[in-house]
Amino acid sequence: MADHVSLNVPDESTCFDDDGRPKRSGTILTASAHIITAVISCGVLSLAWATAQLGWIAGPSVLILFSFVTYYTSVLLSDCYRIEDQLTGRRNYTYMEVVQSYLGGGHVISCGVIQYINLVGVAIGYTISSSISMVAVKRSSYFHNNGHDAACNVSRTPYVIMFGVLEMILSQILNFGKILWLSIAAAVMSFTYSAIGLGLGVAKVAQIGKIQGSITGNRTGTEIDKVWKSFQALGAIAFAYSYSDILIEIQDTLKSPPAEAKTMKKATGISLAVTTLLYMLCGCFGYAAFGDESPENLLTRFGFYDPYWLLDIANIAIVIHLVGAYQVSCQPLFIFVEKKAVEWYPDSKFITKEIHIPIHGYKPFKLNFFRLIWRTIFVITTTIISVLMPFFNNIVDILGAFEFWPLTVFFPIEMYIVKNNIAKWSGKWICLQLLSGACLVISIAAAVGSFAGLVSDLKVYKPFK
């Protein structure tokens, strides 16, 4: 009789990975959803303005250039996920761990500082952008009822607070694997508002019967203003392609076999191809519709007024998308702080104790007081800063300039050189260094232009207005 008894105990190999952690289930679809959520963010709305500063030749060319560079360096970075063998080598769970494995020393500290400052900045940028979109919904209805020239002064502060409260709740989600539904919803929303912006641009071109703009770009203002704005446009485009700082964390959600790097390369290729096509269409049609007058934010600066309900849908979609993008971007920072806290204070019940709260029909919710307090303080801090610093374009451009060279280009190239033992002064080494150097120059130019724009805006800034 005993020979026929089955306990139905699952094989441990089906529950855990090669490192003893819970089995991962990510696929090309899930990775693409996370990438699109991170890449197609509020930055797409400033691309018409960026194209207007660069003109019809340089604008689209720079968009394509950033796309190729981002794809190439992302492929290099994904190859560094595992040490040695792509299927059985030791995994690196975060960007900083990859840098530790290949470069070590001061590179790890500089990487961590840049990565996490950038993630804080992204959270602030998303909060600012979402509040601007919420205000735009209220203003569009007001303009519809009272005319396009009616005065409509609406405070952003209540909307920033509303967004912050929602993020406080969602920030208690534990990791990337738990927010797939949020990423998918956010990706759908990003396509929604981008498509509306594109459609309105096409309709505007059809209405006026001509394509506006010029080969050299914005012809208003002084020559020095044009130079600063051209540099600032580089920062806006760099931000639009920014996601390398969470690439490894996304790759760590992928099941294996096949090798995670193989899946990640396919997901990156698909996501960036779709993203670039959408960026080209939105940026070019926005510029064609408005020429030198292209607004800094295509859907909230009221280049379009009607149909107002369609603008409302687009701005609501932006808010929904940024709710998810905020969480996707902040997860690496949340996880890093909590991991370090456990390492430093392993015996602290406040940090390590998990309280299981039963939820009818679902798995119990794991409440950790340190996680609750630290993540709440983080969201409150970014919310307060967002109230005080309402400069959408400047924040976006500075973040793009700050992150692009070190995280998207320098570290992936240097780690790839170490991993593959590429000889110094060899042809491949020289080509990689030339690429890194060129991108450094672009980042410096973008940073200078972006800070110049911020200084200009601060001269007329009035807090809480």
TrEMBL record:
<feature type="transmembrane region" description="Helical">
    <location>
        <begin position="372"/>
        <end position="392"/>
    </location>
</feature>
<dbReference type="GO" id="GO:0006865">
    <property type="term" value="P:amino acid transport"/>
</dbReference>
<feature type="transmembrane region" description="Helical">
    <location>
        <begin position="56"/>
        <end position="81"/>
    </location>
</feature>
<keyword id="KW-0812">Transmembrane</keyword>
<keyword id="KW-1133">Transmembrane helix</keyword>
<feature type="transmembrane region" description="Helical">
    <location>
        <begin position="180"/>
        <end position="203"/>
    </location>
</feature>
<dbReference type="GO" id="GO:0016020">
    <property type="term" value="C:membrane"/>
</dbReference>
<feature type="transmembrane region" description="Helical">
    <location>
        <begin position="308"/>
        <end position="326"/>
    </location>
</feature>
<feature type="transmembrane region" description="Helical">
    <location>
        <begin position="28"/>
        <end position="50"/>
    </location>
</feature>
<feature type="transmembrane region" description="Helical">
    <location>
        <begin position="270"/>
        <end position="288"/>
    </location>
</feature>
<feature type="domain" description="Amino acid transporter transmembrane">
    <location>
        <begin position="25"/>
        <end position="455"/>
    </location>
</feature>
<keyword id="KW-0813">Transport</keyword>
<keyword id="KW-0472">Membrane</keyword>
<dbReference type="Pfam" id="PF01490">
    <property type="entry name" value="Aa_trans"/>
</dbReference>
<feature type="transmembrane region" description="Helical">
    <location>
        <begin position="398"/>
        <end position="418"/>
    </location>
</feature>
<keyword id="KW-0029">Amino-acid transport</keyword>
<feature type="transmembrane region" description="Helical">
    <location>
        <begin position="116"/>
        <end position="137"/>
    </location>
</feature>
<feature type="transmembrane region" description="Helical">
    <location>
        <begin position="157"/>
        <end position="174"/>
    </location>
</feature>
<feature type="transmembrane region" description="Helical">
    <location>
        <begin position="430"/>
        <end position="455"/>
    </location>
</feature>
<dbReference type="InterPro" id="IPR013057">
    <property type="entry name" value="AA_transpt_TM"/>
</dbReference>
<protein>
    <recommendedName>
        <fullName>Amino acid transporter transmembrane domain-containing protein</fullName>
    </recommendedName>
</protein>
